Amino acid sequence: MQNNPNILQEIKQMANDFYHEAIEIRRHLHSIPELAFEEFKTSAFIAKKLNEMNVSFQQGIAKTGIVAIINPEKAHIKTIALRSDMDALPLNENCNLDYVSTNHGVMHACGHDVHMASLLGVAYILKKLEPHLQGAVKLIFQPSEEKYPGGASVMIKEGVLENPKPLHIFGQHVLPTLEAGKIGLKPGKYMASTDEVFITINGKGGHAATPELNIDPIVIASHVVIALQQVVSRFANPGTPTVLSFGKISGNGRTNIIPDSVLIEGTFRTYSEEWRADAHKKITNIAEKIAESMGGSAEVFIDKGYPFLVNDIELTRNVKSYAVEFLGENNVVDLEIRMTAEDFAYYSQILPGCFYRLGSAIKDKPITNLHSSTFNVDESCLETGIGFMAWLAYKELSN
Asked: Where exactly are the structural domains of the chain?
């Protein structure tokens, strides 16, 4: 291999060679999903595979995380990082698969099993390519992408971006609306910040037939939810994408019982830290004032989550050029911004990063969305994900 200048074809062949093992890895990981910071079996399995490849690594970062390194002797020249998430979602799987989840109520419904299998395939290729690499590659297997405070923030605090310090970081994520075999990218701001909004409306409960004796928190909550729509429609700059949605309203009453309090839960997402802070104040002020005007009170707690994700513009342009070289121009797609969120954003706020999409749509099948109980992928995306990320690493170190 050292004497073969056609590294691109070598990488494609090795991705193809590893493809069937990658499917086995993905299916095994799919069958043993674990929730955030509980990925013990998952972590042990990844460690076993890295040992088999003779790749050095460190376990126990952010509890269950793993950091491996390829070509550490050349870390002083240049180091880049590749990241995969590990955790699953609290969801009952509704797929007719031979490798369905064996952990009841937990499911890999966001493709993290694909991400881990892909990164292990990348480790396999890069280990064989070590003599050709002009630097080192950190492989980050990160816990808890799906749950605050996010495993990325914890791993950063525990030094994942130090010793050696990567110059750039890259991540990939399956996209069920993009055909398998394709890659999608968006330079600049790509994914929104995300905050969880909790509003407790306090009133005075009692018999539903005597409303004059009560302070009805259900009615107050209804007014609050409607009024808060103004945060987006009347206060947000139209040039700053913003979402405020409520997914849960709960009051422990009955048909003839008005409860003492009602809990409203929702999410706030945007692309500006200044507006984010201002919107938090507006949400709090509107809820409190409306509740007060109707005789009740409101307690507002906004749990500040992930920042918005920024893809470094120049780096993303480079990645796009690598993708065109590897896959052909017809298989590289420009994406729009998304209001979904990702804790990869913590990395991208610290050093130049690129978070791109791996097409995973199953041909001639209805699209099953991420975070759904029927989510599945076209497993051919594994060969694309493995090969392209290995090529990306090789090119970036050679740049």
From this structure: 7-190+308-398, 195-304
Instruction: Give the pLDDT confidence of 213-226 residue by residue, as tens digits.
Output: 999 999 999 999 99
Per residue in 134-152, pLDDT tens? Answer: 999 999 999 999 998 999 9
Buried b (16+ CB within 10 A) or exposed e, 236-268: beeeebbebebeebebebeeeebbbbbbbebbb
Bridge partners, residue 309, by sequence: 191
Q: What residues contact 328, with CB distance under 8 A and at least 6 apart?
A: none
For 147-195, the pLDDT digits (tens) are: 989 999 999 999 999 999 999 999 999 999 999 999 999 999 999 999 9
- In three-state secondary structure terms, 356 is strand
% of residues, the chain, pLDDT over 70: 99
Tokens 């947000």 map to which residue?
236
Peptide bond into 187 cis (omega under 30): no
Q: Which CATH class is domain 7-190+308-398?
A: alpha beta
Cα gap 147→89, rounded to integer Å: 9
Longest dimension (CA), the chain: 88
The vertex-357 CA angle with 386 and 36, nearest 5°, equals: 85
DSSP string, 41-88: HHHHHHHHHHHHTT-EEEEEETTTEEEEEE-GGGTTT-EEEEEEE---
The answer to whether 274 and 250 have CB atoms below 8 angstroms apart is no
SS3 of the chain: helix, strand, coil, percent, to 5? 40, 25, 35
Q: Please give the single-letter amino acid code of residue 173.
A: H
pTM assigned to the model: 0.94
Sign of the CA dihedral 320, 145, 84, 378?
A: negative
**Other residues' Cβ atoms within 10 Å of the Cβ of residue 104:** 8
Q: Which residues contact 161 (CB under 8 A, 6 or more apart)?
A: 81, 169, 347, 350, 351
CATH fold, domain 195-304, is Alpha-Beta Plaits (3.30.70)
